[in-house]
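Quick one: structure for this chain?
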Amino acid sequence: MQESQVRSIRNRRLRWTAIPLALVTTLALAGCTQEQLQGWLPGNPNTTNHTSSIIGLWVTSWIVLLVVGVITWGLIIWAAVVYRRRKGQTGLPVQLRYNLPIEIFYTIVPLILVLGFFAFTARDQAQIEEPTKNPDVQIEVFGKRWAWDFNYVTDNAYSAGVQADFNPDGTINTDNLPVLVLPVDKSVEIKIQSRDVIHSFWIVDFLYKKDMIPGKSNYMYFTPTEIGTYQGKCAELCGEYHSLMLFTVKVVSEDDYKAYIAERKAGGFEGQIGEEYNVNQNLPGNGSDNSEG
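Got it. Here's what it folds into:
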């Protein structure tokens, strides 16, 4: 059998192999679950006014990177197969010093990808970090080893949290975790501070977290848009019981939120629990710096 006939048979086999593979891939993608479509991120696009854009940025980035990876691996495998040493061949293949079009291609394309990722990330991050003018609810959060204090600044109430503990079977007792209550569809400003070391305020399903630096105030702005209970935790290793620095977020109706605030005040938790409980009392600007100048 001539070599041209052998190649023709091989090409036909490859085509008949590629067609069912493409069909299977298409069907698999069409049957993706919602979890897969949002890149296995927790929550859903409706959790806050920002989660949709965060999921979109994440998933789009992975799709682009997957396409780049498939093309790259395809070219590597193609080159390894087509230009492999055949039986009976001797010597070195033809050596090329450079190929200007290819070099321009693999310089320009990565540059475009990097600039694109940067541009879309900067756009979404600027939108997320944009301060909300006249927020409906202002809350102050203090991170402390290993719990949380919440000040409802707008409503002049507070909640002081304690560290999580264990059930008799060794699981974490979630019944007594600090609880942050938020009204649904109301704009929220959260002022984030630390009482001791560096922590990180993270509401998992909100897909955003912010570091808590001693002596510095950071801010988060968002609008919770779906009623539910969400898990929160410290996302910065902060000591022995870091894993127990947990809290719960409850997004409730406006009436339920007002009822919670009234309950706090009736229970004696009116006012604010402030910086007087901070462990670091020698930070610059608080009048306790004893360094000699």
